[in-house]
Amino acid sequence: xxxxxxxxxxxxxxxxxxxxxxxxxxxxxxxxxxxxxxxxxxxxxxxxxxxxxxxxxxxxxxxxxxxxxxxxxxxxxxxxxxxxxxxxxxxxxxxxxxxxxxxxxxxxxxxxxxxxxxxxxxxxxxxxxxxxxxxxxxxxxxxxxxxxxxxxxxxxxxxxxxxxxxxxxxxxxxxxxxxxxxxxxxxxxxxxxxxxxxxxxxxxxxxxxxxxxxxxxxxxxxxxxxxxxxxxxxxxxxxxxxxxxxxxxxxxxxxxxxxxxxxxxxxxxxxxxxxxxxxxxxxxxxxxxxxxxxxxxxxxxxxxxxxxxxxxxxxxxxxxxxxxxxxxxxxxxxxxxxxxxxxxxxxxxxxxxxxxxxxxxxxxxxxxxxxxxxxxxxxxxxxxxxxxxxxxxxxxxxxxxxxxxxxxxxxxxxxxxxxxxxxxxxxxxxxxxxxxxxxxxxxxxxxxxxxxxxxxxxxxxxxxxxxxxxxxxxxxxxxxxxxxxxxxxxxxxxxxxxxxxxxxxxxxxxxxxxxxxxxxxxxxxxxxxxxxxxxxx
Length: 537
Description:
By secondary structure, this protein is α+β, with helices and mostly antiparallel strands. Helix content is 53%, strand content 9%.
């Protein structure tokens, strides 16, 4: 296998087509401005977006079995560290200059605290190397960058920089608390307990490798019930390790990738962190089943080659209809359309579920409509953000024939992790081809929560510790963004964490670590059954 760290991030290629804000009362002028600025959307949340011209390159991208292409545009998003070729030039100043743009949303005081954490981590890890041969400090900095792309608070980013210091250096928890406060210490302590436990237990010859790993996972599950950011930092840590997994021996690659699929990707999904979940799944898929991974990529490339014109044309038709809709012009600041490719691992799971073959896959394209309502929207029942989404759904069905029983309303019935969106599948060119296209409709806030999950909660300066959640008095982040998660959202996300703690207390002494972990992975991270009353509750 080629090194995953030299490949673009395995999330998705986006075709970004955006309609920009309109402030004029003149509908015609607003529409003209939208057309002139339709392709000027910035990158979203640290993960890459692409315009129509770059979308053509996706065919070459998907023909590669490892997502490794020579396109300079894609090299901008290479997941390998920027220091890998010049490790001798690594310095605290250079590392800071690389990290700072990613966390520019923090206040000057918070930036200084993170800078101090970087200095401490740099000198603590001085002289240490990773298996790849590059300086060890690159790993915690890359973890901090991942957390910064999710716009997490400064405590999480500082903890990401320091998460290996107590385990591998002379830095103590007391020093971390003295310099950065009890919250950073709590996160680092949770990370360290998880990492050190396996090394201590492994010295006991009576323990099997499986028992040692079960102890690790049990400690991790219990740690995150006290501080959710323990698992968020752990997911960022695992993501960077997966990006650089090529430096590990083949047997380690397989076992680490399988553990990622079975534990960490489902945890990311449960937390609603779909950006992290998708990349973890796709990288794991690439290492655990390279043959089927390559087949899926080739099939996706063939389908894009076959339906590229239809997708681009559908994008144009839909955007024109949105531009000409007076209700949307009155109610929204911006409506953005992105063409999204389904994830390779998601496609593979669908194949397994339907007992079909990869060659039978015929639907991989999605158009994602993201709506930004005006601030005044929401004062009445007929102009709420949800109502705007349903209005756009009506436009889509008015343009194209919907596939029967393919409509999913996650706005009225959100997923357990808080995900909200409208999904429908249409046939854009019924009399010309049977090209099926999935359309997803959501607001900007729904999209933020869909991509970042509970991480969006922390970027809004809302904190959860065990059963208690509270927000800053002003209810706004350091960038002036309103806190996007209310108490109901918080309870929805942490209820399963409390269940873990209750299981531990109930079965303490009666359940081995392996049984405890099996219970969680089977009952919590596995499939679920939902029961509704006749009233829809």
